[in-house]
Design goal:
- The chain is an alpha+beta fold.
- Helices cover 29% and strands 29% of the residues.
- β20 and β21 form a beta hairpin.
- The protein is globular.
- The N and C termini lie far apart (41 Å).
- The structure holds adenosine monophosphate and glycine (GLY).
- The site of glycine has 7 residues, from loops.
């Protein structure tokens, strides 16, 4: 079959790498793709948030199946438009994507379904929001309601910080995303990510992961999109996974179906676990980036069968075949990230690295210039490995990192420290 993947980061490189291993995949196109993806698939320039353009492109190229990587096209309704055109698509409808595109919507779904989450208030004006934080005290968490590219959450240690965040959000720093604000109780515990597929009825767990959001070693410094990840997450024991399914995921899916907006796609539940009890931090309606990279390393080619079963409503008959293995990805970023960084620095040493079922460098933000690979984003490479243990996966990943010659980049040496 002909498959189109929308997106151009490390997540989409990993999806393309896994999907392409499946014999069902004939032609594989990734839009827009990047320099690493171009080595294994066709890349196409396409405005992936323009649903009409995506549908026309899919028809013109006889695409049988579209896999949507990032949240923006989902929030823009690309899945709805493809469904209307009769093109099979992996990814939730615009209405169901509200589980990521509106934090207030998710909190209301938690209220209706009884899913445990942080206590909260929802505000449309700064004065009421400030009064709420004064009444609650710090630490407290201030969130812009809408999509803010991972920057719309402020964990405030003090009341002054919380009030500054409220002023900033209502002051328009986050554009439309900050016109409404959710303020939450600060939850303590250990964070982990739980990934399930849902076809509107059946829920199928496909793995757990933990990432490192802070830029610096020892989990210090500003937040990033993620500096590394590993799977599985030790804190997600069978018992915790079972509770997360029974208390959070299934009630959410049932409430979405009851409202006439069933959820179909991958649901990424960000959880806070304390004393074996999971609470919901947030939902994302897509694979995590870089969590997807470690999941794809572990799942391999079967992922295409799983995504197809999900899109076709056949998850009840689908099975995941797990090897008892571990995977780790180390993010290499451009110096300066998550602040200002330079583009265009040359990355050497990539050609001699192993590329097999246990080793892969996924490209997150690269371009080709004069026959060389150059940095073209903040997070640039995801050096990913699999092993029988997390130690082995780590040693393999850092073994590759150490052979990459990129003076313009940096990485954290301590990915996985909590689990190791
Ligand atoms: P989000 O963008 O919703 O994933 O939030 C970013 C990060 O902020 C999360 O990964 C958590 O580390 C933290 N966070 C968000 N909400 C809370 C909360 N209610 N309590 C504690 N930490 C939180
Ligand atoms: N790594 C976090 C995310 O994809 O949202």
């Amino acid at each position: 079959m002909n498959i189109l993947i929308l997106g151009g980061g490390g997540r989409e490189h990993a999806l393309a790498w896994a999907i392409q291993q499946n014999p069902k995949c004939d032609r594989l196109i990734v839009a827009p793709g990047n320099a690493g993806i171009a080595r294994i698939a066709e890349c196409a320039a396409l405005d992936i948030e323009d649903s009409g353009a995506v549908a026309v492109f899919a028809e013109e190229n006889a695409v049988d199946f579209v896999v949507i990587g990032p949240e923006a096209p989902l929030a823009a309704g690309v899945a709805d438009r493809l469904a209307a055109a009769g093109i099979l698509c992996f990814g939730p409808s615009q209405a169901a994507a509200a589980l990521e595109s509106s934090k207030a919507f998710t909190k209301a779904i938690c209220d209706a379904s009884g899913a445990p989450t942080a206590a909260y208030g929802h505000f449309t004006d700064a004065e009421a929001a400030r009064a709420y934080v004064r009444a609650q005290g710090a630490p407290i968490v201030v969130k812009a309601d809408g999509l803010a590219a991972g920057k719309g959450v402020i964990v405030a240690e003090t009341l002054a910080e919380a009030e500054a965040a409220i002023d900033e959000m209502f002051g328009g720093s986050f554009g439309g995303a900050g016109a409404e604000v959710v303020i939450e109780e600060f939850m303590e515990g250990e964070e982990a990510s739980f990934f399930v597929l849902c076809d509107g009825e059946t829920v199928l767990p496909i793995g757990t992961a933990q990432d490192h959001k802070r830029v610096g070693e020892g989990d210090t410094g500003p937040n990033t999109g993620g500096m590394g990840a590993y799977s599985p997450a030790p804190v997600m024991t069978d018992a915790v996974c079972a509770r997360a399914l029974d208390e959070i995921v299934r009630p959410t899916m049932a409430e979405m179906a009851r409202r006439g907006t069933p959820y179909r796609g991958v649901l990424y539940a960000g959880l806070m676990i304390r004393d074996g009890a999971p609470r919901l931090v947030e939902y994302n309606v897509r694979f995590g980036d870089p969590e997807c990279q470690v999941l794809m390393m572990r799942l391999g080619g079967q992922v295409l069968d799983l995504l197809l079963a999900c899109a076709e409503g056949r998850l009840a008959e689908a099975r995941v075949n797990w090897a008892d293995d571990h995977a780790m990805t180390v993010v290499m970023a451009a110096r300066g990230y998550p602040g200002a960084y330079e583009k265009g620095s040359v990355i050497g040493g990539l050609d001699g690295l192993p590329e097999d079922s246990a080793h892969m460098v996924f490209h997150a933000g690269t371009a080709e210039a004069g026959g060389q690979v150059v940095a073209a984003g903040g997070r640039v490479l995801n050096v990913t490995a699999r092993g029988a243990s997390l130690e082995q996966a780590r040693d393999r990943a850092y073994g590759m990192v150490d052979r990459i010659d990129w003076p313009g980049g940096f990485f954290r040496r301590d990915i996985g420290w909590r689990a190791l």
